[in-house]
């Protein structure tokens, strides 16, 4: 699993939690005592950001002694990460590391569940996630969804071509834009062109104009199944993606329509994984 989160972000997380040092540990005079911290899952989940949590502890002066790789499915009672160091180092990294583990593992676990449910119906379907993660958390979110078996839909505006009605309104509407689609494909030969449709008929027009992917938003599953069948019949080279309101409760219905791609945001939002953090004192011999 790629480590997507740079040191600058980890430094910012630490500084946010400890801008002027650790007052409690300092006043208690325990900073130089030796100890150990262990992070253990209290529930079945998919671990994520163990690498970054370990790096946080390392930046605070602790030494990682054990870490499971991100993407590991774990049962309750499984240790995810362990480190040793001074009380000052362990307390400085404790909550930042725990927050990374709990939030990222929560996203990874939800993603794993939704990918599994979709592929039980349609083994070849791709599950991808939007850029609707909470601002400032995209790198963590992207690592988490990949740990759970999904891929990013778009990392941002710079690397993909996805045309919405909010674009075509400046071009005179969908029909004038579709007349220029072949020219757009020539100007971006290394990119697939995705165009979103608001209706069944728009989706057919987009497919017939030569878009690589037709994306529909909030289309009911029965209507979507009929659309997929028609596009397969008339434009077999065009892929179909569905977005809008897809979650663990309805993903199997959408996967069963025969679409190629499910686009969703729901995995970003929900309960963090329940992970315990226990600090023990290493007594001097």
3D structure, described in words:
It is a single chain. The protein is an alpha/beta fold. It folds into two domains: 7-113 and 271-281, Quinolinate phosphoribosyl transferase, N-terminal domain (Aldehyde Oxidoreductase, domain 3, Alpha-Beta Complex), CATH 3.90.1170; 120-268, Alpha-Beta Barrel (TIM Barrel). It has eleven helices and 13 strands. Strands 7-6-12-11-10-9-8 form a seven-stranded parallel β-sheet. A four-stranded antiparallel β-sheet has the order 3-5-1-13, with helices on one face. It is elongated. The two termini are 40 Å apart. The model has no long low-confidence stretch (mean pLDDT 96).
Report on the biggest sheet. Answer: 7 strands, parallel
Helix percent reads 40-55%
- Helix-strand category: alpha/beta
- Quickly count the domains: 2
| Text of the CATH class of the largest domain | Alpha Beta
Number of strands: 13
Radius of gyration: 23 Å
Defining traits:
285 residues, alpha/beta, Aldehyde Oxidoreductase, domain 3, TIM Barrel, 2 domains, 4-stranded antiparallel beta sheet, 11 helices, 21% strand
Short précis:
The chain is α/β, with parallel strands linked by helices and 285 residues long. It contains eleven helices and 13 strands.
Give the arrangement of secondary structure elements.
Layout: H1 7-17, H2 23-28, E1 34-41, E2 45-46, H3 50-59, E3 63-67, E4 73-74, E5 79-86, H4 87-121, E6 126-129, H5 138-147, E7 151-152, E8 161-163, H6 165-168, H7 174-179, H8 181-187, E9 193-197, H9 200-209, E10 213-217, H10 221-234, E11 239-243, H11 251-255, E12 261-264, E13 275-281
Parallel strand pairs: 6-7, 6-12, 8-9, 9-10, 10-11, 11-12
Antiparallel strand pairs: 1-5, 1-13, 2-4, 3-5
Helix pairs in contact: 1-3, 3-4, 4-5, 9-10
């Amino acid at each position: 699993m790629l480590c997507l989160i740079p040191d600058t972000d980890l430094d910012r997380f630490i500084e946010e939690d400890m801008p002027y040092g650790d007052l409690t540990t300092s006043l208690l005079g325990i900073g130089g005592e030796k100890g150990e911290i262990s992070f253990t899952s209290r529930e079945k989940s998919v671990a994520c950001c163990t690498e970054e949590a370990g790096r946080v502890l390392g930046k605070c002066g602790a030494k990682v002694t054990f870490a499971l790789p991100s993407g590991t499915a774990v049962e309750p009672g499984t240790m995810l990460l362990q480190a040793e160091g001074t009380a000052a180092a362990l307390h400085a990294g404790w909550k930042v590391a725990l927050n990374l583990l709990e939030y990222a593992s929560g996203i990874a676990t939800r993603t794993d569940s939704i990918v599994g449910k979709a592929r039980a119906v349609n083994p070849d379907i791709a599950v991808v996630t939007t850029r609707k993660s909470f601002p400032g958390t995209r790198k963590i979110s992207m690592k988490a969804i990949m740990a759970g078996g999904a891929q990013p839909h778009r990392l941002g505006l710079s690397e993909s071509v996805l045309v919405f009605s909010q674009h075509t309104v400046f071009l005179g509407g969908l029909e004038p834009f579709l007349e220029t689609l072949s020219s757009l494909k020539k100007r971006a030969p290394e990119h697939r062109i995705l165009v979103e449709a608001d209706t069944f008929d728009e989706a057919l027009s987009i497919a017939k104009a030569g878009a690589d992917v037709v994306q529909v938003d909030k289309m009911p599953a029965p209507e979507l199944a009929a659309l997929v069948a028609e596009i397969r019949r008339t434009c077999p080279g065009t892929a179909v993606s569905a977005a809008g309101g897809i979650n663990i409760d309805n993903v199997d219905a959408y996967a069963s329509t025969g679409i190629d791609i499910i686009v969703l945001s729901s995995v970003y939002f929900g309960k963090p994984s329940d992970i315990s953090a226990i600090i023990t004192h290493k007594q001097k011999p």
